[in-house]
Specification:
Blueprint lengths: L17 H9 L17 H4 L9 H5 L6 H4 L16 H7 L3 E8 L9 E9 L9 E6 L11 H8 L6 E6 L27 H22 L8 H14 L5 E6 L1 H12 L4 E7 L16 H16 L2 H4 L5 H17 L2 E3 L6 E3 L4 H7 L6 H18 L10 H10 L7 H9 L6 H14 L4 H4 L25 E5 L7 H10 L4 E6 L13 H13 L7 E4 L4
Parallel strand pairs: 3-4, 3-5, 5-6, 6-9, 9-10, 10-11
Antiparallel strand pairs: 1-2, 2-4, 7-8
Length: 546
């Protein structure tokens, strides 16, 4: 479920060692957008000009103090094991990964003030004779850790992977990097407004309470949690690694982070792959807004698949019958909470949560993902009919986090989004947007247009990043991506004239490279990573049968 928090992390992360892998895949989101933020004085790291060297003393002094000491640090590489209960570290050690911390300023305007550590990892190049450099990874989210991701990325890169130092990092206040925990009673804030005004009013109270709780828990750090500060951390990592330029692989939200990096630090990236790209002009607190049609299409396509397997899932023999079963589940949850599971893992879910579960199941059109969603929907149909249910294996842990906030810290994703772009404050405006969208998109409109904690957050300290300069990058996108929609990738391609776009036709899938199994896509990306040369023109690949 968490993999659908927004747009987020590539399913390949499921193959990353240990629990960090599950977190990496789970926090992948689909959010994006852009409202107005209060302008603040430029911070030296963000204003740095093109070039590879650390910011000059004069540039650093514009923020009051120098940043040189951060750029000149050298990581103390060692074991990835963090303690006796760490299950991921031993697996990373076994895979040959080294781990370290990089120190960064909490506030780049005050580099001599409080600092935090950013956890990084490295799988060193084995073909040192033909070494290209370091490639930095981001699995999306916002809030997706990537410290455990280098082995998976190396596998995706095939032969060319041996020529790179593959570097993962947990962004500030995520994973092992001074993790934020707002102590929320749920892990997912992407909820639906429900069927009526009473449901929306409950959402207003809930979301305000979440914002207030996070502010009470972490007021001193919230102003410094933002994509721009993560981009600054990335450049410090680049300097600490001793690289003049750094390559980058980012999925989903990671494409926005990568784009921001190109704008803040022009000339400092080498080969950059942005998979499932976000149009920076669409990056806003309601990041799912505008994805309704793509999600309806993905749900309809899945319903057609399920209809062909009525004997397995019992949801209907036609696409229309399966979609009618979905409607019955939603209607039943609006009349009263449905109970799924039993004992300690019995969950009562209402019409604010059911659309989220449906939304969560349709970002991947591979057979295993479709089958998993079929199992869940079968349980929901049984619950809607009042029958006792048993949760499919693996779902309970995901639901404990999503619906109860158990097992992992909560709030980092919202803190990043709310710290990037200011949200509207008037609940009545949200309600009007919901009602307008409900007419055309009755299932997903109340989800994508709903109010969230950002409406009650302190306003960001900086304006959001705008694309004002070209950058040479490779964009990868599926035409049916229901998280970061294809039109967003097309628009980013337009804004970056030197970029190229690899399009996969016919797939309802979020995140492709190295995880979807399309040889055409993977070969194009690996050719670029090997040669540094973008295709002469945009390319189109086709979804492979089966």
């Amino acid at each position: 479920m968490r993999s659908h928090e927004a747009a987020d992390a590539p399913p390949a992360a499921d193959r990353t060692p240990g629990s960090a892998a599950r977190r990496a895949s789970s926090v992948g989101l689909v959010l994006a957008a852009c409202l107005a933020a209060i302008p603040t004085p430029a911070v030296a790291a963000g204003a740095a000009s093109a070039g590879a060297a650390p910011p000059s003393a004069s540039a650093a002094n514009r923020s009051g103090e120098g940043l040189d000491r951060y750029y000149r640090q050298r990581p103390a590489w060692g074991s990835c094991v963090t303690g006796p209960d760490d299950t991921t570290g031993p697996e990373l050690d076994k895979a040959g990964v080294q781990c370290a911390d990089v120190t960064v300023p909490l506030d780049y305007a005050e580099p001599r003030g409080r600092t935090i550590n950013v956890a990084i990892s490295r799988l060193k190049a084995t073909d040192t004779r033909h070494r290209i450099g370091a490639i930095l990874l981001n699995t999306g989210g916002p809030g997706g850790p990537a410290r455990a991701y280098p082995p998976t990325a190396r596998a995706a890169m095939k032969e060319v992977g041996a020529r790179y130092d593959v570097v993962g990092f947990d962004p500030r206040f995520v994973g092992r990097s001074a993790p934020l925990d707002c102590g929320w009673p749920l892990g997912m804030t992407w909820l639906s407004a429900g069927a009526d005004r009473a449901g929306f009013d409950r959402q207003v109270a809930l979301q305000k309470g979440l914002a207030d709780k996070c502010r009470a828990t972490a007021a001193s750090v919230l102003p410094h949690i933002s994509t721009r500060n993560t981009a600054r951390d990335m450049d410090v990592i680049r300097g600490a690694l001793g690289e003049r330029k750094i390559s980058y692989l980012g999925y989903s939200y990671g494409t926005y982070l990568g784009t921001v990096y190109t704008q803040m630090f022009p000339g400092r990236h080498d080969r950059m792959v942005l998979d499932g790209a976000i149009n920076p002009g669409d990056y806003r607190p309601r990041l799912l807004e505008g994805t309704e049609r793509e999600n309806e299409k993905a749900l309809s396509d899945w319903a057609g698949w399920a209809a062909e397997r009525h004997g397995t899932y019992g949801l209907g023999r036609t696409r229309a019958e399966v979609l009618a079963a979905v409607d019955r589940v939603v209607a039943a949850s609006a009349r009263g909470p449905l109970t799924i599971g039993s004992g300690a893992d019995a969950f009562r879910i209402d019409d604010s949560q059911v659309p989220l579960l449906l939304f969560s199941g349709i970002a991947d059109d591979t057979e295993p993902a479709r089958a998993s969603f079929g199992e869940l929907l079968s349980v929901l149909v049984e619950a809607a009919g009042g029958a006792p249910t048993t949760l499919p294996a693996g779902f309970a842990a995901e639901l404990r986090y999503a619906l109860r906030g158990e097992g992992e810290p909560t709030g980092a994703q919202s803190a990043i989004i709310c710290g990037d772009v200011a949200a509207g404050r008037d609940p009545e405006q949200y309600w009007r947007d919901i009602e307008r969208s409900r007419a055309a998109h009755p299932l997903f409109g109340p989800l994508t247009r709903n109010i969230n904690p950002c409406a009650f957050w302190d306003r960001p300290r900086e304006e959001p990043t705008r694309v004002r300069r070209d950058a040479s990058v490779l964009i990868v996108a599926a035409t049916g991506d229901p998280r970061t929609t294809y039109k967003g990738s097309v628009e980013l391609r337009r804004q970056l004239p030197s970029s190229r776009l690899i399009t996969l036709e016919g797939a309802n899938r979020h995140a492709l490279y190295g995880s979807y199994g399309n040889a055409c896509v993977d070969d194009q990306v690996n050719r670029y990573l090997a040669t540094g040369k973008l295709p002469a023109k945009d390319r189109t690949c086709v979804k492979e049968a089966g």
